[in-house]
Amino acid sequence: xxxxxxxxxxxxxxxxxxxxxxxxxxxxxxxxxxxxxxxxxxxxxxxxxxxxxxxxxxxxxxxxxxxxxxxxxxxxxxxxxxxxxxxxxxxxxxxxxxxxxxxxxxxxxxxxxxxxxxxxxxxxxxxxxxxxxxxxxxxxxxxxxxxxxxxxxxxxxxxxxxxxxxxxxxxxxxxxxxxxxxxxxxxxxxxxxxxxxxxxxxxxxxxxxxxxxxxxxxxxxxxx
Length: 224
What we know:
The protein is of the alpha+beta class. It is built from 5 helices and 8 strands. It has helices spanning about 10-15, 30-50, 75-90, 135-140, 195-200; strands spanning about 55-60, 65-70, 95-100, 115-120, 145-150, 160-165, 185-190, 210-220. It is globular. The two termini are about 35 Å apart. About 30% of the residues are buried. Mean pLDDT is about 85; it is low at about 1-25 and about 40-50.
């Protein structure tokens, strides 16, 4: 109510026709009530299920083309919220993809992976590190095209992220790539633009994982 409604006096009320409680017009058939109840229940579950499946989509615009990523806030709420915080404050704008790990440039690693890494933000603008959302809890495994947070020790991820090329189970909880066995926090997946990801992967020199010039990330924005 906004407080500006017109007040109704007793004469107005008396002039309104009424229906007898026994009038057929004032009755609702039991079958009709049952149908209405079932409809409302179905609507409730549809809305609830839709909310549970809610996803966020972001566009990573690079100097080599666009990469579309679908994020899973219901499965990895902390990691997605952290990523979107950098997105919404435009801190990823004018950063880069700077590293490509291939099967040929990991001479010192017994467990091989294939990823590209980017999103290193100005150190003076980095937000606090977030807790590690393990794949054993989220159920988001490091499959082909999955996006995940880079880290050193558990609970140390901030801004830098990577994208998997092919399945990388050694990056999941219990995997052997990291000695602590805790894995990395996957939080979404590439839905369009894997050809751009693979172009970036090919930039890595055989004897090094870091390449120059880096691939510019022009911006990362939400898709509405």
